[in-house]
Amino acid sequence: MSRIGYARVSTIDQDLDTQIAKLKAEGCGIIRSEKVSGASRDGRAELETILDFLRPGDELVVTRLDRLGRDTRDVLNLIYECEQKGAFVTVLDPHVSTRGEMGHIVLTVLGMVAQMERRFIKERQRDGIEQAKREGVYKGGKSRFDRDRILQLHRNGEGPTSISKAVGCSRMQVYRILRDA
Fold it and tell me: Can you tell me which residues form the catalytic site (predicted)?
């Protein structure tokens, strides 16, 4: 029986250290982490790795339920998959586990709250962007890639595949930047 920790933040500039420290303090022998959105399960390779290797009696531990996901259906499906393998899910804040029936009810409610919170965040973001546009101060989202570096690498003879690896983006993103330049 292993306690396997899972830590997740949504963006590259966010820090995983606090979550990892809490998971270590809880006795997690294995901790997998990633920096990817929790809006869906797409692209969450570390979480998939954990699910693939769960054995009966193992315990998946997260610091908060929204680290598993922000969509109620996704969270409930993850919990169901763990249970099908004979494993448990434990959330540290608030401390809830699927080892008991009451834990299932609480996790379902918390999953719904996480989804509602995501909707509120998106709504506030949309309102803020509209306000900034009305005031003429909206400059668009923060650029995630150094476009000048991509163009320079291309001028130096690098291909899209090697550029995408060097910059940390998809090849399609490189093609779009080159097309727009």
Answer: 10
